[in-house]
Amino acid sequence: MDLAKYKGCLGHLAAKPDNATREDQAGLTDEDRCYMGVLNPYQLDLVKLLGSKALARSEDKTQVFISRENPYTRPRSRHTRDVKQVALAIASVTNLHCDLTMAGALGHDIGHLPFGHHGEIAFTNISGKKICHATVGVIVARRIERRGVGLNLTNDTLQIILNHSLGAGDFVSFDGLPEETAVVMWADKIAYVFGDVNDFARCLTESEPDLVCEICRRANEFGQNQRARVAMCVEALVEESEAKGRISFLQSECARKFDDFRKWLYEEAYFPAQGARSVVIDGLQRGYDLLATCEEFRDCDHLLLLALLTDKEARRLMDWLSIAVGFPSSRSQTSGLSRSIDTSRVSKSISPILGARPIAFADHFRAPLWGALFNFKSRDKI
Fold first, then answer.
1. Is residue 351 part of a domain?
2. Who's near 159: CB < 8 A, 6+ residues apart?
3. From CA 130, how far away is CA 124, in angstroms rounded?
4. Which of 73, 295, 306, 369 is buried most, with the most CB atoms less than 10 Å from its CB?
5. CATH number for position 80
6. Which structural domain, as residue segments, surrounds residue 333?
7. CB-based contacts of 19: which residues, under 8 Å, 6+ apart?
8. DSSP per residue, 134-182
């Protein structure tokens, strides 16, 4: 397919930088205010996200596989780069706003919990309410980064972060949101499906050869490698989008085949193939119980502290539970563990989140920020 004939087909839908707004529009509390009026608002969002702690910490966050002994197995940061790559190609061809698209792609997963979607399940069990990394990402951007001041991103970028995720569910409309939201959403799906195929082959060939063989057989219907598979979907998406007059990847033969493959992966591969899932979920729940008994964190939101940990930090916390007192057989047995564990070691693991001792940032977590997670609606004004 010659993509050149579709060049600029959706340019009339591109976000307008002149209309972009921020929470602190004047930049009174923004350390990047010197760039305002020099960079366009979405370029400034890129600058902010590239320097964010959340993006740096995504190097130690799970994409699919918790154990990443193979250096090519994707952490969350590699997936983010994959999404940026696909999203930039789509936005460039269709002439949507590339800076906004890249900012949304960079920030889309900054709210991921330790151990990825396994962590989301654990946190949902702890809180009794569904936790979504997309919503956590908005909280991180607005109220966690820069010691609680936030990144002061544009509302357009925040909306992309908030609305990019569909999980295994069906497509939802993006009416009222920047068209770049749909670009990042589809780039996310295309990037993780074909990137994860490679990781399944790397990590499960010996233990699950039949599953890997079937995954590769289905993936090869789109091409013989990741680049060819991505290109096939991008081409089909652009062609359909030009015909529909907006970003669309639903009705072509390629789109339907892609949707079937993605849903099949959720049903047969993502969770069934990972035996460590229950151990991780259990460990995070008990780690939360331990934090709740630590005197150093008495004034902190324990769920929020646990949510901000990297995989390595969360694993260290779980190791202390198992080594110091033996891994409890139930969460009820975790009560009082702080009397058996040197909790100063726990605090040293967690304090690097903000680069400070716990007592110095207790005030930062005293406000009920975590409660705000349940007050966001996907289409509410940020």
1. yes
2. 177, 178, 181, 382
3. 5
4. 306
5. 1.10.3210.10
6. 277-375
7. none
8. HHHHHHIIIIITTTTT----BHHHHHHHHH---TTS-----TTS-HHHH
Output the DSSP codes for 25-88: TT-TT-TTGGGBTTB-HHHHHHHHHHT-HHHHHGGGSBSS-S---STTS-BHHHHHHHHHHHHH
Q: What is the pLDDT of residue 163?
A: 92
Q: How far is CA 87 from the centre of its chain?
A: 15
H or E element in which residue 16 lies = none
Task: Write the DSSP symbol of residue 19.
Answer: G
| Domain tally, the chain | 2
Q: How confident is the model at residue 368 (pLDDT cuts 50, 70, 90)?
A: very low
- Give the whole-angstrom CA distance, residue 335 versus residue 184: 43
| Chain segment 41-60, per-residue pLDDT in tens | 999 999 999 999 999 999 99
Contact status, residue 192 vs residue 168, Cβ threshold 8 Å: no
CA distance 152 to 141: 7
Let me know if residue 4 belongs to a domain: no
Residue with the larger pLDDT of the pair 26 and 320? 26
Distance of CA 242 to the CA centre of its chain: 29
On the question of pLDDT at 280 being above 60, the answer is: yes
The pLDDT of residue 237 is 98
Provide CB contacts within 8 A for 22, sequence distance 6+.
Answer: 30, 41, 152, 153, 154, 155
If pLDDT is split at 50, 70 and 90, which confidence band does 132 have? confident
